[in-house]
Amino acid sequence: MFINAYLEYLNMDKKKLFLFHLGNNLALWYELGTTAFLTEFSRWWYATSYAFALGTSILLLFSYYLLFVFNHINGNLFKRFRNFIILVIFIYTLNWLIVVLVTEHTRLHYIASILVVGFFVAMFTYHLNEHFVFYD
Question: Which has the closest alpha carbon to 69: 4, 6, 127, 8?
Fold first, then answer.
């Protein structure tokens, strides 16, 4: 019953969902490329490079969601950004915990766990962004 309702909801917002996942994939490639460039060519420590990439990625992803996915350039942007940061911290922590639990308890390879958990967390994240950050 829940699954059918969820699939119906996804059918209503296919374009938004596609744009949301496109943004997530672009952010991932940006983070990987920026981290590698700053580490290998600029000789930054990898953790500093990754922190910079994540920080700038969060700003870019928020802007992308704001303009292209949820189309909410009105309202209190500071409040939306604050909610977005809270959500990102929550989702990153949740993702990490679930990946560790799945990997340790199922003996699934960690990369497979990241991919499986990431898929489900991304669906959950879409709904949280829509209702917690970019609501009317």
Answer: 127
Secondary structure class of 69 (helix, strand, coil): helix
* Other beta carbons less than 10 A from residue 70's beta carbon: 20
| Distance in Å from the first CA to the final CA of the chain | 28
pTM of the model: 0.71
CA–CA distance, 106 with 113 (Å, rounded to integer): 9
Report how far Cα 49 is from the mean position of its chain's Cα atoms: 19
Report the distance separating Cα 44 and Cα 39, nearest Å: 5
Q: 80 with 72: CB under 8 angstroms?
A: yes
Q: Under a CB-based contact definition with an 8 Å cutoff, are residues 86 and 116 in contact?
A: no
- Residue 92: left if φ>0, alpha if ψ -120 to 50, beta else—which one? alpha
Reduced to 3 states (helix: H, G, I; strand: E, B; else coil), residue 45 is: coil
CB 96 within 8 A of CB 110: no
Give 70-125 pLDDT, tens digit per residue: 876 677 888 889 999 999 888 888 888 888 888 889 988 777 777 788 778 877 88
